[in-house]
Amino acid sequence: MTRKILGLSAMLLSSTLIVSQASAETIRWARASDALTLDPHSQNQGVTHNFAHHVYETLMDRDVEGTLTPRLATAWAIKDGAPDTWVFTLREGVTFHDGAAFTAEDVVFSLDRARSDKSNMRQLHVDVAEVTAVDDYTVEVRMTAPSPLYPNNLTNTFIMDKDWSEANNVVEVQDYAAGEDNFAVRNTNGTGPYILQSREVDVRSVLTVNENHWAETPPEVTEIIYLPISDAATRVAALLSGEVDIVQDVPVQDIERLSATDGIKIETGPENRVIYFGYKFGDEPLASSNITDSNPFNNPLVREAMELAVDRDAIQAVVMRGQSIPTGIPNPPFVDGWTEELNTYPAVDLERAQALLAEAGYPDGFSVTLDTPNNRYVNDEAISQAVVGMLGRIGINVTLASRPVAQHSPLVTSNETDFYLLGWGVPTFDSAYVFNDLVHTKEGSYGAYNGGLYSNPDLDVMIQSLGTETDLEARAATVAEIWDVVKADRVLLPIHNQVLAYAMNDRITLPVHPENQPLMTGVTFAD
Amino acid sequence: MTEPLLSVRNLTVEFPTRRGILTAVQDISFDIMPGEVLGVVGESGAGKSMTGAAIMRLIDRPGRIAQGEVILQGRRIDNLPDAEMRKIRGRKIGMIFQDPLTSLNPLYRISEQLIETIRTHLPLSETEACKKAVGLLDDVGIPDASRRIDDYPHQFSGGMRQRVVIALALCAGPDLVIADEPTTALDVSVQAQIIDVMKRLCAENGAAIMLVTHDMGVIAETADRVAVMYAGRIAEIGPVRDVIKDAQHPYSSGLMGAIPRLGANLERLTQIPGSMPRLSAIPKGCAFNPRCPHVMDKCRIDQPQAVQTAPGRRVACWLYPPQDGTTASAERQSAE
Amino acid sequence: MLAFIIRRLAQSVVVMLFVALIAFIVFRYVGDPIASMVGVDTRLEDQEIMRERLGLNDSVFVQFFRFIGNAAQGEFGISYRLQQPVTELILSRLPATIELAVVSATIALVFGVIFGVYTALRPKAWSSAGIMALSLVGVSLPTFLIGIGLIYIFAVELGWLPSFGRGEVVDLGWWRTGFLTESGLKSLILPAITLSLFQLTLIMRLVRAEMLEVLRTEYIRFAKARGLTQRAINFGHALKNTMVPVITITGLQLGSVIAFAIVTETVFQWPGVGSLFIVSVQVVDVPVMAAYLMFIALVFVLINLVVDILYYVVDPRLRVDGGAGK
Amino acid sequence: MENRTLFKDVPAEDLIVPVRVQGRLARALDSDIFYSWRTSPVTVVATLVALALILMALFAPLIAPYDPFNPASLNLMDGFTPPASTGAFTDNYFLMGADNQGRDVLSTIMYGSRVSLFVGILATLFAMTLGVSLGLIAGYNGGTIDAVIMRITDVQLSFPAILIALLIFGIARGLIPPSQQESMAVWVLILAIGLSNWAQFARTVRGATMVERQKDYVSAARIMGVHPILILLRHVLPNVLGPVLVIGTISLALAIIEEATLSFLGVGVPPTQPSLGTLIRIGQQFLFSGEWWILFFPAVTLIALALSVNLLGDWLRDALNPKLR
Description:
The structure holds 4 protein chains of 4 kinds. Chain B has 11 helices and 12 strands. By secondary structure, chain B is an alpha/beta fold. The N and C termini of chain B lie close together (10 Å). Chain B is globular and about 65 Å long. In chain B, the strands form 2 sheets. In chain B, strands 6-7-8-3-9-10-12-11 form an 8-stranded mixed sheet, with helices on both faces. A 4-stranded antiparallel sheet of chain B has the order 2-1-4-5. Chain C has 2 domains: 2-72, no CATH class; 86-318, MetI-like fold (Orthogonal Bundle). Chain C contains 13 helices and 2 strands; from the N terminus they run H-H-H-H-H-H-H-E-E-H-H-H-H-H-H. Mean pLDDT of chain C is 78; it is low at 320-326. Residues 1-23 of chain D have low confidence and may be disordered. Chain D has a two-stranded antiparallel ribbon with strand order 1-2. Chain D has a domain at 123-325: MetI-like (MetI-like fold). In chain D, a hairpin with a 6-residue loop joins strand 1 (85-86) and strand 2. At the A-C interface, helix 6, helix 13 and strand 16 of A face helix 2, helix 3, helix 7, helix 10 and helix 11 of C.
């Protein structure tokens, strides 16, 4: 480095610039949307959590394989003699960005805040009865009933500093109905590896590395410039023109072009999210159908015919350009209860499908409207469009109704749709999460997204037993049993699991995170 | 014999259209002497306004001067470059348009329009030009001129505006003023005043006037000589008194028969039957032949040439056949 | 003059109320705000709690009057999506949009007038025919295609200009400007051109038509007959008279430049109110959408007022007539 | 002194330019129009292009190589077939390539133009009817009615059409039950575009009506007790048809582009029955991935259509020389 210094100030200047660049690696990270808020308990939404994970930390984390790893908690176990209580051992020597020490009272405060009425994280902690600090680095969480899988719910619950929160009047989560502004929405004080320097909503945020972070090896990235770019073409253009280093949401059709471009590479990996179609059940005729005396979907033969008509492989090859994993079960492979056998799906057989339709009493097919979101999942509208064509070939005349997700999902939750596309992610990595919301009869807190009102009392009993079963083997057997029924009854028509693709500057390596929440601490540079 | 101020020789104005070339003005010739008032009379479309516009070179496209010469003070001006011609407009030849309501730019004060025009032509300072402008407005009879000069056109009545227009036309001291129907758009009660103002000022400045009008009465009261136009041609030209007293062209005599006189029997106010032809349908031979009470076979075949019938009088009619090669272009006349 | 302005203001209030009503009614029916505020995984009972907290279960009238009352105080509540005061959000986005709109409007006006005058003065020239034909192509190209095309050529293929955002901005305390940095200025070029093209062609054609009309008037003929220079006639007399109608249309167009920026801002990821609006529409962020509509209405009302006053200044005839308006 | 004028004063231009076409449609269709059409090569080409596109749209079911709306004829595996080649899984030949659903781009353009033109023409007719009616009413009645209508016109003109269309689309979405929304989508689109374009008509017609109203024959008819509607239809309307025709043509081009923009923003017709705008929105996703034909051909068609209609409007404006504005 020093060999060439000849005293020319210009040379000096430029070489110091090079030095400072080499020691400080900046990453310009683009994705489709910005974090909604900086308040860690205010929104239960992936993009928001992803951003928060850089500033705040959780008790435990999930690595790229999907297994739980220690973070602010170094160990966790069910308390001896008390099957309804979890004990968490906390990491020592951790400080918040403002210098305050991290202790058990912060965890108690944060969990209580996260399960308060105004918190959007509340649902993950509904079974918590009480959180207590045993000593500075031990916390006990007592549940209303034994909850063997509760730690799975903690991967997005961030820990705030109690004193800071009290000082800034953010003990409660923001009540925006009351028109209140809240300090925590725009200011942070976490323990995380990065410190927020500036933020312009929807435009750019700058984060710099936390020199005092507890991790032994400091991250290679010392500065993050976070750039939300909503338009897909613009996002890709920005990467092609070298204005950003990482694009997290890459349209599948651009993967090929990007990977063929010098200086750009693609990382792909499966996401913990399944895409499926749902049917309206029950005897009521369908609102959008020409069949006015019966509900074709209620007939298992029709559902079988439709499964035989849908060519999952063609969707994968053309619509998804290979970027999906076709599946025969509405359950991502990361989730407990997934098996290779369940995942199989029948080959396309149009003749048999037509025969089945005829047998079911619909030799001329029928008509129905398919509701699809058009801005939520990877190529959601194109998948639906392809399925419309495939069903058309066996005489089912499908009208496609495509809407932004904001207008689509109310149709599903209020059961106003006959036939719909939806995606389901499983943050707990446990099948019960799927059964509770998609399979269980819609009642109380169950079946919220059971858009077709499927109901099977036998299954309901089994599903409810999963919540409190502490014998993990017996629980797994029940899960397998439920899956067999769900598959045999064709409750849903699963298509594929999404594959995530990150495109980046080729001197960077960033593995794909199954929940699409990559941490920039995981970025490595090739030299 | 003085040199004519303006000579128009064989002037022809054409408008090419897709249905052929229309001739708006055909082969006309006349002179204007310094200080003289020449009236040009005829029906609308007879080509009289077009003649004035042609002299000023203000014919709108696609119209063009197809032939002929315009000579001002011995200098040919019909082929001058635009920049040269611009210096003649306003400075040598002033022009007054028909409608005072539309002749003035509504967005500029009277003072601005006057001073701009004065300073375009005369090497005067702003204040000198302003002083001259006030004087001009006084001259044209605008009361309280020094105050009203800063008004906008819409603040004046029609008659007052025409006075402003006259001031504008005269402000650079032209030798000739082409007044194109200067009173037509005005209230009858102010017409005479405007003519008076115009005539008085021109006389004071020694400027000649070419007064274009369809109103024979105005001509009778104002002009020294008159040219009667019909369908783009000059039917007859001569001293006003002579023409009124003894019109030679059947068209002129029709016109003159219609001039009201004090005590005259109103029944004498007869109109000429029929109407002037469209330019696209001018009959062969003499253009007037379908309406002419004296029409002859020859009139339907050949176009009559202008013939000198008396000193300073010419007429184009087969009633006055040409004698030994007298042609229109060899015009001779005496100055008054 | 004062009475005239007061009357105009009264009309403006009516217009604002009308727009407020539309804004409110429309967005009360476009999708479910709750569905967009929460993740797809939020339980329904929690959604119901939020609905109650936001007052979405009150009667429509109660909600409307609450809306009007708050709007009058510049209070549009808290964005459902970003949980920040809407007024503050819009104000923080406003500089970007205004800078873009002003630059675009200036480009449109300057080149529109130049081309318009040029083609009017040389109606038969080849170059005029070319400009006119190009202007039609400009009108026939959808804005989004122009934007995408420009990005593809100048950002991706040539790499001359940035493809998104507004580059480095300098914070002046109450205004973030992109005018003071090189990257800020470079970032402005493509969006400003994209946004200005449509208005440019419009203004150009308008100026040309008006100018041709004015050039045929009697006072221009009279000005020629007085021997005024071509320059004085074209640029003094004709242009000034041409400008009267041009001012109205251009004034109104400036309002639509701000609103029209929606598409441009989306394509170029320009951090202005337009892109804020379109994102808000997608997620049904009702307070932001309502505030945006009100904002546009306010811009419209203000511009109309300014145009009326400008008329007053430019056209002396109105000063006497009392300027009752168009 | 009584009027001494002997001759009725006729503006000189009337005699010079043989026939000045003003107002009446009948006279507008006089051969002068045809002459100015014939002598403008650009206009002739524009007319031919517009005609070709309209005929193509009209007869799409007869001339399109495939029916892109018939799922049975499609094979998804043909998706992304490049232009001028045969699909990988069927023997279908794709002159302009196949899109992401395996549809023949040429056929989708033919059918898409049909949708675009249908929406554009109906929306324009709707806007025309509404605008002309309101303009006639405002111009004929004057007073408060006029003031109210013109105020609304001002408001409408100050909001970009796209914003208004988005609003109307939003309202319609809220009022129509979800199961009906798709079948109604085209009509909602027509309504939305129509309602965002009527003001120009209203303003022009109102101006012309106010002029006509002053004329003697209208006063005479009014005194004779002719019904106002009859006066408007018989006397006033024919006089404003020229400008209305010009604005109508330009509005048609605007409506086509507006439909495309709305579809691009995702609020247009469903992708299974695409318009040109929807096709562009779909194709735009493939701009960087190399399947240029999915965007290129529909975009070129849209531009050709809009441009040729605009050129026609421009020519018509000059030919009829109405006092626009």
